[in-house]
Amino acid sequence: MPEGLSPSEVSKEISEHTERAHSTSEQESRHDRFLSITEALILSLVAVLAAYSGYAAAKWSTDSAVAIARASGMQTQANRLDAEAIVTRTLDFVSFDTWFTAFVAGHRRAEALAAKRFRPGYKPAFDSWLATDPLHNSNAPPGPSYMPNYRIAQASEAQVDDTKAQDFFAEGTHAGSTADDYIRVTVFLATVLFLVGIGGHFRIRQARWALIAVGTLLLVFSAIQLIGLPEPPS
Q1: What confidence tens digit (pLDDT) does each residue in 109-152 have?
Q2: For residue 76, how many other CB atoms are within 10 A of its CB?
Q3: What's the whole-number average pLDDT of the chain?
Q4: SS3 content of the chain, % helix, strand, coil (to 5)
Q5: Which one, of 99, 75, 38, 226, lies nearest residue 158 by Cα?
Q6: d(CA 47, CA 6)
Q7: How many Cβ atoms from other residues are within 10 Å of residue 207's Cβ?
Q8: How far apart are CA 99 and CA 105, in angstroms?
Q9: What is the pLDDT of residues 17-71, one digit of tens each?
Q10: Nearest CA to 204 among 43, 35, 37?
């Protein structure tokens, strides 16, 4: 599970910064107090955005795991149906070979018995194939399995399930990528927390302003990234 910035870590940093500002408030100038207020505001914004980013990353990660699991289950079902289709097709070939052997040998009773044992779904294709007069028509299909109405239900269902599995996998991949994007934003926010938090330890105002400037740029960049990302799934 991806994790964002811990609220306790952000709260601790804000608390320590406030204590430092309070303990030295009598010695600081108005300019220094403004610096401290600015840093506190930035840290507060980081706390809010980091909490949202961590929450969104967790939600998208969960959504990704669920979608991938569905894709795996659907693919397993598709493979099972495909295996059943192969077995059914093999039985059709064996049944036709039995009929054809009796037909070549001229055993009409055996021929009729073999045709009677055809699979119900195979019989229409066989009848359509006979209607093409394969004995005299050189353009007739090689066998019933080549007829347009030759159908195996498991094969069709396997194709449908395979398509669904691919869709679920694509959905899971997209959700996982979105979760990674939120985690990336959380890393930027952690950098802002570090820069602004460490700035309070410097007595040189220019250094603190420089850290605030860099942190603000990263904060704005992070906020823009969050706005452009999809909302967490419900």
Answers
A1: 998 899 889 998 899 999 999 999 988 888 999 899 999 999 99
A2: 12
A3: 87
A4: 80, 0, 20
A5: 75
A6: 9
A7: 13
A8: 10
A9: 566 555 544 445 666 777 888 888 998 999 999 999 999 999 999 999 999 999 9
A10: 35
Q: In terms of residues, how long is the chain?
A: 234
In sequence order, which residues have a C-beta less than 8 Å from that of residue 18 and are 6 or more positions away? 40
Tell me which residue of 158, 164, 193 sits closest to 79, measured CA to CA: 158
pLDDT of residue 9: 63
What separation in angstroms does the CA of 147 have from each of 86, 127, 134, 169? 17, 10, 12, 34
Query: What does the DSSP 8-state code read for residue 2?
Result: -
Half-sphere exposure of 25 (CA within 13 A, CB side): 9
pLDDT band at 1 (very low <50, low <70, confident <90, very high): very low
Run of H or E residues at 219: helix 205-228
- If one counts every other C-beta atom within 10 angstroms of the C-beta of residue 222, the result is 24
